[in-house]
Structure formats: structure tokens, C-alpha cells
Specification:
The chain has 223 residues and is mainly beta. The protein has 1 helix and 8 strands, in the order αββββββββ.
């Protein structure tokens, strides 16, 4: 074998080694493919302000605080749908730990009715809350707990005597938020609310209190 052949073989061997090393480097450093096609939120991806909307269903109890003077068994069941809007913000305060604040207001058609002889109709017209949130940053999902103050606008009508009042109380619950894109997430939530008592000017002045449960599903947009 002549010198030219030896040189050619050596060159081919060197090129093969270099090409193999480069290919291995590309395989190691290339990002893993996302076969699921979904969005994977990075750690800290929940930070920032957001606005959203939600739909839900609520059910609860109107209590006669005067000891059954108005209602049989001292209580009246109420239920209906909720449609509302949310405004809030999140902040990562430690690795994996997110704190935030949120406010919401919702239109409600929750209502309850007790026929004669009471003839009492109670309508929950709207609800609102201002809450704190504490969540765990799980990447594309964030389970959280929430609690704060709550308010509701309620109308009671007894045999044609109508009275409207605002109730003030507290609310607490939890949920999970799931990232769909970099700026869009789906929020599933449950809350229990105790709106306290208010005095209604009906046939006679009557104290009514309100407690509710609510399940909601919403979409939040981070900006």
C-alpha cells in the first residue's frame, strides 16, 4: 500500500470520528420532543397579573334568624347559576410557592321560594369577594387554597313586600389552575361562603342569613 493510500485512509478515519462526536453532541443537547403537543409552563411561569371569566353553579341556605317566625324549619334552600369576572395577580415568593390576590364579582340567579302561607321569595342577585391565594407551582398546573371577605346582594319578597339588602361575610375554598398556553390557563374552583345576616323590611322586620357552596370553571388571561 503506497503513501497516498495510507494518507487517504487516515483522513477518512479522522472524519468518521469527528462526525460521530458531532452527532452525539447534537443528540445530547437537543431538547426532548413534546409528543403530547401541550404547553409546559416553566417554574415561575405563574407570576404576573391576570384577568378572567367564569361560569358556575351555586347552592345554599337562607336561615331565619328569628327562630322560625317566617320560615318552616327555620331555613329555605336556594340554588342557581353564576357568571362572573376575576382580576388578580400571582408572585413566586419561594421555589415552588406562589402567593397571590384575587377579586371577583358574579351575576347570580340563585333563588329559593316557600309558598303560602309564608309566600317568601329570596333572590341572590350578585356575589363578590376579595381573597388571598396560596399555591404550589407544579409547572403546567398550580393547586391552591384561597380565603377572604365576601359580599352578596340579596332581595327578599314576602307576599308583595320587597326588601333588598347587602350581606357581608367570608369565603374559603380551593382549586387548581392548569396552563393551556404561555398566557392562558383554565381555573377550576370550589368555595364555601358565609355571608352573615341582614335585616329585611318585610311584613315585619326579619333577620335572614345566607350561606352558599359554589363550583366554578373559568379561563384566565395573564398580561
Amino acid at each position: 500500500m503506497n503513501r497516498f493510500s495510507l494518507t487517504l485512509l487516515a483522513g477518512v478515519a479522522v472524519l468518521s470520528v469527528v462526525s460521530g462526536a458531532q452527532a452525539a453532541d447534537l443528540l445530547v443537547n437537543s431538547p426532548a420532543p413534546n409528543y403530547g403537543g401541550g404547553y409546559s409552563s416553566p417554574a415561575g411561569g405563574w407570576d404576573g397579573a391576570y384577568i378572567g371569566g367564569f361560569l358556575g353553579y351555586g347552592w345554599g341556605t337562607v336561615l331565619d334568624d328569628d327562630g322560625g317566625f317566617l320560615l318552616d324549619d327555620d331555613k329555605l334552600a336556594a340554588d342557581g347559576f353564576l357568571v362572573g369576572a376575576t382580576l388578580g395577580a400571582n408572585f413566586t415568593v419561594a421555589p415552588g410557592f406562589v402567593l397571590g390576590a384575587a377579586g371577583d364579582v358574579a351575576w347570580s340567579n340563585m333563588s329559593g321560594y316557600e309558598p303560602a302561607p309564608t309566600d317568601l321569595d329570596v333572590d341572590v342577585n350578585w356575589t363578590g369577594s376579595l381573597r388571598g391565594r396560596a399555591g404550589f407551582d407544579g409547572g403546567m398546573f398550580m393547586p391552591y387554597l384561597t380565603a377572604g371577605v365576601a359580599v352578596a346582594g340579596v332581595t327578599a319578597n314576602e307576599a308583595g313586600n320587597e326588601s333588598g339588602q347587602m350581606h357581608f361575610g367570608w369565603t374559603a375554598g380551593g382549586g387548581v389552575e392548569v396552563a393551556a398556553t404561555e398566557n392562558l390557563s383554565v381555573d377550576l374552583q370550589y368555595r364555601y361562603s358565609d355571608y352573615g345576616s341582614a335585616t329585611y323590611e318585610l311584613v315585619t322586620d326579619t333577620d335572614l342569613s345566607l350561606t352558599t357552596h359554589a363550583l366554578t370553571a373559568g379561563v384566565n388571561f395573564k398580561f
